């Protein structure tokens, strides 16, 4: 069996760990690293997996999953560079970081696959996009797809599209949460108790998402099915258009993509 080490067992790292075990991987084949000793104890007790140091993970694992924050990547690569074994696959879940960064800092020929997941991984409903680095093979991509399928859906994209993916689906759940928050507040403004308003909006969001996924219909068709001539929905849509909500979303997602690109450029070598 392939041994997988998750470097950084935060929320996303733990979610992947749990998904791998649920999908049938043996606890003995999954390792993790974590800077806080109490967190190591908690995860070991909960999942039966072993917490190790970064150098031990590099010595034992066939796959190293980098699940640290982008600002923590430099010291991690400094620690890994002398100890990564030939043939190791590095899977990056760190937002904005290109495969070229890992290839430049790790031993020559290291295979790297870049992944942009999102936080619904915590409930097994992630949307993850993967891209191959210069040395990653079809077999490497297939292995990463298998791993990530344990926590949601997976698509392959060219790495040049990863900043757009980050802006759209990586950050995407936050946009939905923002919208739901505003709609709940609107219900309160109209006199509904917070609990009732919350239940109404959350279930509407769940139902709408399932219709989008399962019906196969374009969102425009689904929206038009709710929008009767001269009715309440078209009055609301007019106000959304008057306030530039569509344009604001386009601008917001474009800003997120630009920020993702900036995160990657921050680690480029100095001229």
From TrEMBL:
Pathway the protein acts in: Amino-acid biosynthesis; L-proline biosynthesis; L-proline from L-glutamate 5-semialdehyde: step 1/1
Subcellular location(s) per record: Cytoplasm
Gene3D superfamilies (UniProt xref): NAD(P)-binding Rossmann-like Domain, ProC C-terminal domain-like
List of residues binding NADP(+): 67-70
Domain spans labelled Pyrroline-5-carboxylate reductase catalytic N-terminal: 3-96
Entry keyword set: Amino-acid biosynthesis, Cytoplasm, NADP, Oxidoreductase, Proline biosynthesis
Main location, first listed in the record: cytoplasm
Keyword NADP: yes
Statement: the UniProt record of this protein carries the keyword Oxidoreductase: yes
Superkingdom as given in the UniProt entry: Bacteria
Pfam families: F420_oxidored, P5CR_dimer
InterPro entries given in the database record: 6-PGluconate_DH-like_C_sf (IPR008927), NAD(P)-bd_dom_sf (IPR036291), P5C_Rdtase_cat_N (IPR028939), P5CR-like_CS (IPR053790), P5CR_dimer (IPR029036), Pyrroline-COOH_reductase (IPR000304)
Boundaries of every Pyrroline-5-carboxylate reductase dimerisation domain copy: 159-263
EC number of this enzyme: 1.5.1.2
Residue sites binding NADPH per the record: 54
Record's GO cellular component terms: cytoplasm
NCBIfam families tied to this protein: proC (TIGR00112)
Function, in words: Catalyzes the reduction of 1-pyrroline-5-carboxylate (PCA) to L-proline.
Family that this chain belongs to: Belongs to the pyrroline-5-carboxylate reductase family.
Name of the protein this chain belongs to: Pyrroline-5-carboxylate reductase
Organism: Nakamurella flavida
């Amino acid at each position: 069996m392939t041994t997988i080490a998750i470097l950084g067992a935060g929320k996303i790292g733990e979610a992947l760990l749990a998904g791998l075990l649920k999908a049938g991987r043996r606890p003995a084949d999954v390792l993790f690293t974590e800077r806080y000793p109490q967190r190591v104890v908690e995860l070991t007790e909960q999942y039966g997996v072993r917490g190790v140091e970064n150098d031990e993970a590099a010595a034992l694992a066939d796959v190293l999953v980098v699940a640290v924050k982008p600002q923590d990547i430099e010291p991690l690569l400094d620690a890994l560079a002398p100890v990564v074994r030939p043939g190791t696959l590095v899977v990056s879940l760190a937002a904005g970081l290109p495969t070229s960064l890992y290839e430049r800092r790790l031993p020559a020929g290291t295979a790297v696959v870049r992944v942009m997941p999102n936080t619904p991984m915590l409930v097994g409903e992630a949307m993850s996009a993967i891209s191959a680095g210069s040395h990653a093979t079809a077999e490497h991509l297939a292995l990463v797809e298998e791993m990530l399928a344990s926590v949601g859906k997976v698509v392959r994209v060219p790495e040049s599209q990863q900043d757009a993916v980050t802006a759209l689906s990586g950050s995407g759940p936050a946009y939905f949460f923002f919208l739901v928050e505003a709609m709940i507040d609107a219900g309160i403004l109209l006199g509904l108790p917070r609990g009732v308003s919350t239940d109404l909006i959350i279930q509407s969001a769940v139902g709408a998402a399932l219709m989008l996924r399962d019906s196969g219909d374009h969102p425009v068709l689904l929206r038009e099915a709710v929008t009767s001539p001269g009715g309440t929905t078209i009055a609301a849509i007019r106000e959304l258009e008057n306030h530039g909500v569509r344009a604001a979303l386009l601008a917001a997602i474009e800003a997120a993509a630009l920020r993702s690109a900036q995160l990657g450029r921050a680690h480029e070598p100095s001229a």
